[in-house]
């Protein structure tokens, strides 16, 4: 199990609720949209300390009926109702590194950390409480990565769905060096564990440009103990993870970093236009 107990913070501060769930109209077709473009000549492998103008991103929109919508445009760091969790990393809302002047979540993890030598993660994320998961949930963010994980076997975590109460358990969406996605399932259900998108990678994550990353979580009923979760890149299905353990997840975390760093643990990542909904979100 890859769950990092030390990253938990008291849940009392996460007690603020969110908007009521929207009705599900059954429409799985996302609206079109472009996740944005990058400045010419940028290098995804440049060190985080270099004088880099940063990625560009267009302002996002809040879909009607969304459970949660965070555009990071008011400059608050962390934004209202979110709690920042960091370990050997920094996280802040940075409006100076986007061409349109709007804010984006900026995460930098330190390099050279190896848990085989010295325990400790290199990760930063924002966490908040959401309504308990029923049967269908979508999480969308526009993501810009300077680089993919530096070695095979070191996974970078984007999103975490979890429940730390009596229905304890969770899972997290990760990316690997070969651009494929992985799912770390610590729901304590039968078959739980770690699984990855098989090679060859047809659709995967990319560094050096803005990517629309959407994560779908489904189960047949609110009492189902297993379901599936799909990953979409720019609206195209990348992989469908099946037989995934399910709980009444009531916390969402967004960010980036390595729970299990293996040496090349430095990274710089931006996230923007985060939306959580019970229907397909798309890239607008």
UniProtKB/TrEMBL annotation:
Source species, domain of life: Bacteria
Compositionally biased residues, Low complexity: 29-47
Residues spanning the signal sequence: 1-23
Region (Disordered): 24-60
UniProtKB keywords: Signal
Protein name in UniProt: Lipoprotein
